[in-house]
Amino acid sequence: MNVFVVNCGSSSIKYQLFDMSNQSVLAKGVMERVGSENASLAHTIDGTKHIRHIKAPNHTEGMAVILKTLVDPEIGVLKSISEIHGVGHRVVHGGEQLTKSSRIDQNLLAIIRQNSQLAPLHNPPNLMGIEAAMTAMPDVPHVAVFDTAFLSTLPPRAFRYAVPEDWYSLQHVRRYGFHGTSHKYVTLKTAEILNKPVDKLNVITAHLGNGCSMTAVQGGRAIDHSMGMTPLEGLVMGTRCGDIDPAVLIYMMKQGASLEEIDNTLNKKSGLLGVSTSSNDMRDLLASADKGDPKAALAVEMFVYRVVKYVGSYFTVLPSVDALVLTGGIGENSLPVRHRICLGLERLGAKIDPARNESLPSGTPGPITTDDSALPVWVVPTNEELMIARDTIAELA
Ligand code: ADP
Asked: CB-hemisphere CA count at 13 Å for 380?
């Protein structure tokens, strides 16, 4: 069975084609600048990237180019599009109604559309991708996999904000959480690695990329999570502030900042970038900090401190913790940040094994703490696309 996984942004289409008989990737790629006359397609097969400059005035035409590429005599991998048996779509917001991956029909599309007001930057392009793919492949089943779904098991004490009840009941103001597909993937993978039934597994999963989030998982189900009604809450991120006193916004508005300015600043100019004033990239910041840049050093320190604080709070609400699981670009690759997180968790029993941390090959799961560490810390590379493909197959079975 071949499953085509699609992740559509406002001006991009990312895709992966899986052969699910052995879960291998047949082809993957990204189309950028969709909506313009000078779009580009980077299509990778067998580790070789092929770049094409193309016209993709909209997502429907962009999708048509991608599907044509998949059957291209030179760089294609299929004889015919009919060899695609299912399409899995990443959809950011499922809201309260859509709590599991679901086959797409008109009714589901209408609910995703309704949820656009909760995710105005993400759901509309996700919908464009679904519509483009459904137009190109009308006879193939399409499945929506929601970023929020894995977090839908949060109890009210964790998902409600302490604001008037009607903000929740009338305006849907609550914690939804994001990155759920990644948290689900690493939870299942950790259960497999630790050889423990997932319904007996208690872990804290930390997705540390450009966006960062953390989940407390009890018996394989999410019971708390750091992102909120939007992906702005929680950890310090590349350009997002994470937790902040909401009165700061009111204060800044009274100082003359407009709503749009505040929105833009907290989402795009804050976090590591805001504090360091130089970069949102952890690699740059570690290098600058090493050269003595105090702002870069503070940004890294705040990043690690916030992660450690969240682990502490999830440690207290879980009955036990089998492992802290690090994933995402920083979790999978940044040795110094991993080291510092472990040092910050010494009081909770984490004992870093520096040799393990340094010798763990990129892309491989493994522990970075000693065998007698009371709090084992593992690196488990995420694979959201494979999780979407698996969910798609499960829905079609
Ligand atoms: P996104 O959330 O956009 O998918 P990623 O998961 O790729 O982002 O994470 C991006 C972050 O990962 C950046 O801060 C980047 O510096 C960091 N990162 C990626 N590779 C490395 C590396 N080798 N060493 C340190 N940090 C890395």
From this structure: 26
Which residues carry out catalysis?
Answer: 147
Tell me the average pLDDT across 314-322: 98
91 φ/ψ sector (left φ>0, alpha ψ -120 to 50, else beta): beta
Q: Is 281 in the pocket of ligand 1 (CB under 6 A)?
A: yes
Identify the pLDDT of residue 397: 80
From the list 231, 221, 238, 155, the residue with the least C-alpha distance to 183 is 221
Res 195 pLDDT > 90: yes
Task: Report residue 2 CA to chain centroid gap.
Answer: 23
243-270: average pLDDT:
97
CA pair distance 311, 3, nearest whole angstrom: 36
Q: Ligand 1 pocket, 381 CB below 6 A?
A: no
Contacts of 50 (CB under 8 A, 6+ apart): 42, 43, 44, 75
Q: Is the CB of 333 under 6 A from ligand 1?
A: yes
Distance 106 CA to ligand 1 centre (A): 37
Q: What is the distance in A from the centroid of ligand 1 to the CA of 170?
A: 38
Topology of domain 195-379 in CATH is Nucleotidyltransferase; domain 5 (3.30.420)
Q: Which atom of ligand 1 is nearest to the CA of 286?
A: 25
Sheet holding 36-45, edge to edge: 48-56, 36-45, 24-32, 12-19, 2-8, 86-91, 142-146, 102-103
Q: pTM for the complete prediction?
A: 0.96
Question: What is the domain partition of the chain in residue ranges?
Answer: 2-146, 195-379
Half-sphere exposure of 98 (CA within 13 A, CB side): 27
Phi/psi region, residue 234 (left: phi>0; alpha: psi -120 to 50; beta: rest), is left
Question: Does the Cβ of 231 fall within 6 Å of ligand 1?
Answer: no
**What gap in Å lies between CA 18 and CA 282, rounded to an integer?**
31
Pick the CATH number of 2-146 from 3.30.420.40, 3.40.50.720, 3.40.50.300, 3.90.1150.10: 3.30.420.40
Whether 299 shows a pLDDT value over 90: the answer reads yes
User: Atom 19 (ligand 1): residue with closest C-alpha?
Assistant: 329
Q: Do domains 2-146 and 195-379 have the same CATH topology?
A: yes
